[in-house]
Amino acid sequence: MSFVVVVIPPALAASSVPVLRPSDPAELVHMINAASPEGGAVIDLGAGEWRIEETLQIRTPNLTLRGAGREATTLVLNTDEHYVPAIAIASTGTCIDGIRIRHRSPSVANNFAVYLRNASDVTLSGLSISSETGTGLAIEGGHGTITVSDCDIH
Q1: Measuring CA to CA, which residue among 121, 103, 124, 98 is closest to residue 44?
Q2: If DSSP codes are grouped into helix, strand and coil, which group holds residue 79?
Q3: How big, in percent rounded to 5, are the helix, strand and coil portions of the chain?
Q4: How many whole angstroms separate alpha carbon 25 and alpha carbon 153?
Q5: What pLDDT sits at residue 8?
Q6: Nearest-angstrom CA–CA distance, 134 and 154
Q7: What is the CA radius of gyration of the chain?
Q8: How far is CA 57 from CA 22, 29, 88, in A?
Q9: In this structure, are residues 103 and 75 in contact, taking their beta carbons and an 8 Å threshold?
Q10: Residue (of 67, 62, 49) closest to 92 by Cα position
Q11: CA 55 to CA 86: how far, in whole Å?
């Protein structure tokens, strides 16, 4: 006899958590910035390429950013500004799942595709993360657990 245990992140488990579906990159940025300070939202990206022009600043607790799979959903930040991450996380309980993240910003020092700073209890899963000019993933400070599973980081 065998058992399979599935652990669902808190942001996905609660039925009262709103699921938001942005229609374009500008609306995506707006949804992240307008998320309730109490937290608990899922932003569900559809398949396709999402070209953002600024860092996705995740400061809201228990926010989930979910794609349709790293082969189907791509988030791209290509900027001429220095030291600009595609995603910056400074919260508790963030979950990012099923996205290909592509990054380019001029400078190889302190230049990250995904940057966790003073974040805690973060789950990164099913991601493909790369930076053409810097580091794929950087973690600085924080507490709790950072879980990285089934990710390709370049």
Answers
A1: 98
A2: coil
A3: 10, 45, 45
A4: 23
A5: 47
A6: 9
A7: 15
A8: 16, 8, 5
A9: no
A10: 62
A11: 5
Which residue shows structure tokens 């400078």?
A: 107
Question: What pLDDT score was predicted for residue 2?
Answer: 36
Q: Rounded to an integer, what distance in angstroms lies between the CA atom of residue 47 and that of residue 72?
A: 5
How is residue 5 written in tokens? 């245990």
State the virtual CA torsion across 64, 65, 70, 74 in degrees, nearest 10.
-170
Is there a contact between 61 and 36 (Cβ–Cβ < 8 Å)? Answer: no
Strands (E), the chain: 19-20, 41-44, 48-52, 56-58, 63-66, 73-78, 87-89, 95-97, 100-104, 112-117, 120-125, 128-131, 135-140, 143-149, 152-153
Residue 32 to residue 59: CA distance in whole angstroms:
8
Helix and strand numbers (H, E) in the chain are 2, 15
- Residue 3's pLDDT is what? 37
Cβ distance 101 to 71 under 8 Å?
no
- Block means of pLDDT (10 residues each) for the chain, 154 residues, are 41 67 94 84 96 94 96 96 94 97 88 96 97 94 93 95
Burial (CB count within 10 angstroms: exposed 0-12, middle 13-18, buried 19+), residue 69: middle
